Recover the amino acids of this structure.
């Protein structure tokens, strides 16, 4: 609708008016939206920065028409130059195989459209609702199950906020708000703070959970103001990060996470099991250890959602089970994430059972 003012557009406008960085001045620390505005959007440009070249550039660029490439600089900085199989690069670099059809890989594998009763809100789990405050992300992960999600239809305007809060206020079985997306941290601190304040007025709400990957690709997003918002809310807060590989945990991210920990926020991680990226014992072990060292508990390890264009990432259920069993044998119990899959229409994640 033309009359609406989508929040996302608003924040993008903020980004666009940021003046270009002067090359003369000494480099001051950039704000997170400056970093976001400068994110890499071209396949060629990403490859050039890493001293890499490919023979199927056209196909990869074509894959971007379906789902654009988007990678902020701090994430690129964690990649290894000259390494075409860098586990961070492979998460964001389009492959020509994305263009091939694959049996069982479809546009909306979780049939989220059906639980999407109220614009910007998904109520499919008992006691908690997913609020899609932002339709955008700061990074486009090639395996994302929302790569074909009708975000356009779910643009959330200011009027929708009230409708979401009204829905939650009417159902006192809802104790937890899960801010999801897209990435909810695409909203600026002022917008987030305002939403949280309004939500606090609903007496049966007790917990606030934020699912985000933004700090992983732009650690500057954990601003002092954001930490303060979470510290001062009456809600018990958890942040569920999305980190797939230990290399994603560099010094800057670790520092940002320690600020959240100091504020008493529970930090959890969910990862997606991805072929060629984190599907071996050492990668998973290193990830769990690095997470714990950074104050984050491994929570979920997801089997890939069968979304069109992501079949090259698939790990078979059997291989996933074997890997998970090895993790149980090699790590303290609290360092082993739950192996789960998401099934449409289910009221929770489905645990992947142990093999006999
Ligand atoms: C699974 C899932 C939830 C619900 O999570 P639980 O931790 O099982 O309560 C919420 N948001 C997203 C994005 C999820 O994938
Ligand atoms: S950050 Fe999450 S929602 Fe955004 S593209 Fe990556 S996987 Fe998808």
């Amino acid at each position: 609708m033309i009359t609406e003012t989508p929040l996302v557009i608003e924040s993008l406008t903020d980004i666009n008016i940021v003046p270009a960085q002067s090359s003369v001045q000494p480099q001051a620390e950039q704000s997170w939206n400056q970093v976001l505005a400068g994110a890499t959007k071209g396949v060629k440009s990403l490859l050039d920065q890493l001293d890499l070249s490919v023979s199927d550039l056209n196909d990869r660029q074509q894959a971007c028409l379906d789902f654009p490439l988007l990678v902020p600089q701090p994430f690129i900085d964690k990649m290894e130059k000259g390494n075409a199989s860098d586990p961070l690069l492979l998460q964001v670099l389009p492959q020509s195989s994305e263009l091939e059809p694959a049996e069982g890989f479809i546009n909306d594998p979780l049939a989220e459209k059906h639980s999407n009763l109220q614009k910007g809100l998904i109520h499919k789990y008992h006691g908690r609702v997913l609020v899609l405050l932002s339709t955008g992300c700061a990074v486009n992960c090639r395996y994302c199950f929302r790569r074909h999600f009708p975000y356009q239809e779910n643009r959330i305007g200011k009027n929708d906020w009230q409708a979401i809060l009204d829905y939650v206020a009417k159902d006192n079985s809802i104790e937890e708000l899960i801010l999801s997306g897209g990435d909810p941290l695409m909203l600026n601190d002022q917008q987030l703070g305002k939403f949280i304040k309004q939500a606090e007025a609903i007496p049966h709400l007790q917990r606030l959970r934020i699912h985000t990957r933004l700090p992983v690709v732009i650690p500057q997003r954990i601003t002092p103001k954001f930490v303060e918002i979470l510290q001062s809310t009456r809600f018990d807060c958890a942040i569920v990060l999305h980190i797939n590989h230990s290399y994603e945990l560099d010094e800057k991210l670790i520092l940002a996470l320690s600020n959240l920990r100091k504020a008493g926020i529970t930090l959890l991680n969910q990862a997606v099991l991805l072929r060629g990226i984190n599907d071996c014992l050492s990668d998973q072990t290193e990830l769990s250890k690095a997470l714990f060292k950074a104050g984050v508990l491994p929570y979920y390890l997801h089997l890939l959602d069968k979304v069109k264009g992501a079949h090259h990432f698939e790990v078979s259920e059997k291989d996933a089970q074997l890997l998970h069993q090895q993790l149980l044998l090699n790590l303290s119990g609290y360092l082993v994430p739950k192996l789960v899959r998401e099934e449409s229409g289910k009221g929770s994640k489905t645990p992947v059972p142990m093999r006999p």
